[in-house]
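ARCHIVE CARD
Drawer: 12
Card no.: 0347
Subject: one protein chain, sequence and derived structure
Cross-reference: see card 0346
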Amino acid sequence: MKRENGIVVLRFDKGEDFMESLSAWCVEKDVQSAAILCGIGMLRDMEIGRYNGTDYTIKKESESCEILSLQGNVSMKEGSPFVHLHISFADHNFSATGGHLFNGTVSMTIELVVAPMSPGLVRKPMGGTFWQMDI
């Protein structure tokens, strides 16, 4: 981890459960609100989703894929930090896809740029699987 002017750069290592590790870092550092500005690296064994109006259509990707874009935020949901990320990635054929990132395992490494903010971003239930963020 490196911190500069309030911006934090994190590195995740091969084999780590990415979402679990990021959530654990948020708890350890008491990060309740943050902007996840960008991320690069590789993930495998991903589960991504696309919201279809009532729930998520899930797609699984087992191969190692290059992250093209990774961004999102951290807010509080039911008293715990909630990491909300969107990802686009390329497979071995250079085909790109993406969606809401539910989980994945770090393939080589991931470098993530995070801007922690003052607490205040809170998610509240809106019905179904949708949670609205109070801003």
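Annotation on reverse: The beta strands are 2-4, 7-13, 33-51, 56-61, 65-77, 80-90, 96-117, 122-127, 130-134. The two ends are 28 Å apart (CA to CA).
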